[in-house]
Write a structure and sequence with these properties.
Elements (H helix, E strand, L loop, with lengths): L1 H18 L1 E6 L15 E14 L2 E13 L5 E5 L5 E7 L1 H5 L6 H4 L10 E3 L2 H18 L6 H19 L11 H15 L15 H8 L3 H12 L3 H19 L4 H7 L5 H12 L3 H8 L1
Antiparallel strand pairs: 1-5, 2-3, 2-4, 2-5, 3-6
Helix pairs in contact: 4-5, 6-8, 9-12, 10-11
């Protein structure tokens, strides 16, 4: 029986990798979603029930109907608490969605961003509308329609934009001045440094100076632009992102403290210990023991 389950999962993953998209209805959460890991695909779930979602270093406990956005670069796990759990799930690769002219909406949505909230509460009226969209995608993936991939991408865009409309406007209002453009490039570059997948490939850009050199701008100009747009310094953004990754690695890998330190670009573990304690008030070992 176990071999059959493994074979079915393997076939599912192979089909998903080949097609770049999969939609299906769920009646209960699977064991697979309870394993904290970095997924290979973007994931959008419309679910009704009670659950606990562990996302990066945060936990969201939800009851009722929610829309969940999973980013393949951010590790997460899902615990189903209620006995009945229903809804829909779609999985898609970045390559599948990049063929859409509206692929920028993935980056525009705060739901897919580190530091954002990947969960959106849904009213019964919104659920009825979204149910229809998910059902259309499930039906379309089985059809012989020549342009079904483009139609499915349109449905994904529709879900994302409907979700953006549910957010306060200030969450996605964008300024187009030079400072905002430079800040956007910096934040995107910062995000591309993560996740740290292996100790053999440590963090490359670790300081504001590194980012200034990489972006070919003077460090003072970069700092002014980032501070003007976000209210925080370049160094503060880098520090917060490294701490977020450090917490995720401490909680959800079996790497030693030394391995995590080197993976995050620290020359010596003691430097990492001091850095972590200064930012969190506790040392890495105590954080790991307390949070697990």
């Amino acid at each position: 029986m176990k071999e059959k389950v493994i074979r079915v999962i393997s076939e599912f993953n192979s089909e998903l990798k080949l097609q770049g998209f999969k939609a299906f209805q769920i009646e209960s959460d699977s064991n697979e979603t309870r394993t904290y890991s970095r997924k290979e695909f973007y994931k959008i779930c419309l679910t009704t029930g009670k659950s606990k979602i562990h996302y990066s270093d945060k936990t969201f406990e939800q009851e009722g109907t929610i829309l969940f956005f999973g980013n393949p670069h951010i590790p997460y796990s899902w615990e189903t608490i209620s006995t009945t759990y229903v809804g829909y799930t779609i999985l898609f690769s970045a390559e599948f969605f990049k063929n859409s002219e509206r692929s920028e909406s993935l980056q525009q949505s705060s739901f897919f961003k580190i530091g954002g909230t990947p969960v959106l509460k849904i009213t019964s009226e919104q659920r009825d509308f979204l149910n229809t969209i998910f059902q259309k995608m499930i039906a379309e993936q089985e059809s012989d329609y020549l342009y079904k991939d483009e139609l499915i991408r349109n449905y994904i865009s529709l879900i994302i934009h409907e979700s953006l409309k549910m957010e306060p406007s200030e969450n996605y209002e964008q300024n187009k001045n030079a400072s905002s453009r430079l800040t956007s490039v910096f934040l995107e570059l910062l995000e591309r440094q993560f996740p740290i997948e292996t100790t053999a490939n440590p963090l490359q850009l670790k300081t504001a100076q590194h980012y200034g050199q990489h972006l070919n701008v003077h460090i003072n100009y970069l700092n002014r632009a980032v501070k003007e747009v976000t209210g925080k310094s370049t160094t503060a953004h880098i520090t917060e992102r490294i701490i977020t990754e450090a917490k995720a690695l401490l909680l959800h890998t079996d790497w030693s403290i030394s391995e995590i330190a080197y993976a995050l670009g620290f020359e010596y573990p003691t430097y990492f210990n001091n850095f972590f304690k200064k930012q969190t008030g506790t040392n890495p070992k105590s954080f790991r023991l307390t949070e697990v």
